[in-house]
Specification:
Blueprint: E1 3-4, E2 10-12, E3 15-17, E4 28-32, E5 35-41, E6 48-56, E7 59-63, H1 70-81, E8 89-93, H2 99-102, H3 105-112, E9 116-119, H4 120-126, H5 138-147, H6 151-160, E10 175-177, E11 182-185, E12 188-195, E13 202-207, E14 212-216, H7 238-249, E15 257-260, H8 269-290, H9 297-304, H10 311-331, E16 334-339, E17 342-347
Parallel strand pairs: 7-8, 8-9, 9-10, 14-15
Antiparallel strand pairs: 1-2, 2-3, 4-5, 5-6, 6-7, 11-12, 12-13, 13-14, 16-17
C-alpha cells in the first residue's frame, strides 16, 4: 500500500502525487480551474501522452496534440463534442516538435483556422525530416557501422524510423515563442521557460500565480526523457544542454504542481531535477569506468542498457550512449579512435595532450 501525506497524496520515490491513478485513455480530468488533463493513447509500450486543455473564455487552447494516427483524431472528436461542447480551439501550443506532441497540430490548426505556437528551433526541426527513401544513405549506414552495428541491423534501424507515426503533419505558419514570453489564456499568465537537450528548444509553460508548470518532456516523473545523438548530427552534445536546463529549471519554485507529458502530475520539482541530474552523472561515471580498455558504442550500450527489446529500444539506447560518450569527449576525459570504420572509446591518458573543443575538423 502506498504511503500518503496529510492531504492524502501518494508519496513515492521523493515525489508527491495528488491523483492515485491517471484517467483512462481518451478521458479528461480537471487538475485546476480551467486546466484539464487529457490522456491520449499512443501505439507503443509507452502507451500514452498527457495533453492539456486550457479554458479561454468561450474557447480553448490545446497544449500538445498526440501522434498522427486515426485513433488520435477519434479521441479529439470526442473531446470536441464532450469537454469543449462545440466551442473552438483558439490556439495550439506545441512544447516541442516530436511526433507525439506535434503530430496533428496541422490538422487542428486547419480545422479551427487557429495559430500554432512553438519555439523557432522546434518549428524548424519539423522540416528536418528523418532520412527517407528505399534504402539508407551511406552516412546513415556509416553512423551505425562506427557504433558496431552490421548492415542488416542498420537497415532495421532505418526501417524503424520510416514509420508514418514519426512524421507529424506539417503546417505553413506558426507564432514564435521565446524564453520569458507570456501567454495570457483565460485570465491566467503562462510564462515560457525553455529547456534543451531532449529537443532543441523545448517550451515549458509556468503559471506563477497558480503554481502550475506544464513541463512537456523536459521533466517527467519515474521515467527519464531521451537525450540522444542520432545519425543526423553524430557529434552533437545534447547532454550538456540537458544538464544546463536542469539548473535553469531550478528558477521555478519547488512548490509547483508539475503537469508532465507522461506519467502522473506531481509535486517536488527540485527533488526530481536532482534525481535526473544524478541519473545522468551515474551513467557518465559508469561509461567512463568501462573504458579502461577500448570499447565500441555497442559494447557501452550493453553496459548502460542491459535490457532492451526490439530495434526501437536499441535506437534510443544507442542515442543515449553516444550522448554520454560525446559529453565525456568534450570534457577531455574520454578519447575516440577509428579502426576499420569502427569507433572505439577509451579513458583518456591524463598526460596526453588535450584537444581543443573548438577544433571541429
Amino acid at each position: 500500500m502506498a504511503d500518503l501525506d496529510h492531504n492524502g497524496h501518494e508519496l513515492r520515490d521523493g515525489l508527491r502525487y495528488p491523483w492515485p491513478e491517471a484517467p483512462a485513455g481518451g478521458e479528461v480530468r480537471k487538475v485546476a480551474d480551467g486546466v484539464f488533463w487529457l490522456r491520449m493513447p499512443l501505439p507503443f509500450r509507452l502507451d500514452h501522452i498527457n495533453l492539456y486543455l486550457l479554458r479561454d473564455g468561450d474557447g480553448w487552447v490545446a497544449v500538445d496534440t498526440g501522434m498522427n494516427t486515426e485513433q488520435t483524431r477519434e479521441v479529439w472528436e470526442q473531446v470536441f463534442t464532450g469537454l469543449c461542447a462545440g466551442q473552438p480551439l483558439r490556439a495550439v501550443v506545441c512544447t516541442h516538435f516530436h511526433s507525439d506532441h506535434a503530430g496533428v497540430a496541422g490538422w487542428l490548426a486547419e480545422r479551427f483556422r487557429c495559430p500554432v505556437y512553438m519555439t523557432e528551433a522546434e518549428y524548424q526541426s519539423l522540416y528536418v525530416k528523418v532520412p527517407s527513401g528505399a534504402e539508407p544513405g551511406w552516412d546513415f549506414l556509416a553512423h551505425y557501422a562506427r557504433a558496431g552495428f552490421n548492415a542488416e541491423q542498420a537497415g532495421d534501424m532505418y526501417r524503424t524510423i520510416q514509420n508514418g507515426h514519426f512524421r507529424p503533419l506539417h503546417f505553413n505558419s506558426y507564432r514564435r515563442l521565446r524564453e520569458g514570453d507570456r501567454l495570457r489564456i483565460g485570465g491566467r499568465a503562462w510564462r515560457v521557460v525553455v529547456g534543451r537537450g531532449h529537443s532543441p528548444e523545448h517550451a515549458c509553460l509556468y503559471a506563477e500565480d497558480d503554481g502550475l508548470l506544464i513541463s512537456g518532456d523536459q521533466v517527467l516523473p519515474r521515467i527519464t526523457s531521451t537525450v540522444g545523438v542520432h545519425a543526423t548530427e553524430p557529434d552533437a552534445d545534447p547532454l550538456r544542454d540537458w544538464l544546463a536546463s536542469i539548473d535553469h529549471l531550478r528558477d521555478v519554485p519547488d512548490s509547483v504542481l508539475v503537469l508532465p507529458a507522461h506519467e502522473r502530475p506531481f509535486f517536488n520539482l527540485h527533488a526530481r531535477l536532482d534525481q535526473l541530474a544524478a541519473h545522468h552523472r551515474a551513467h557518465l561515471a559508469l561509461l567512463l569506468a568501462t573504458c579502461d580498455e577500448p570499447r565500441s558504442a555497442l559494447e557501452l550500450m550493453a553496459v548502460l542498457f542491459p535490457k532492451l527489446s526490439g530495434r526501437f529500444d536499441e535506437l534510443m539506447a544507442l542515442g543515449e550512449t553516444l550522448a554520454h560518450a560525446n559529453f565525456l569527449m568534450a570534457e577531455g576525459s574520454l578519447s575516440r579512435a577509428e579502426h576499420g570504420g569502427l569507433y572505439r572509446y577509451r579513458r583518456r591518458d591524463p598526460d596526453a595532450p588535450a584537444t581543443d573543443p573548438r577544433d571541429v575538423l
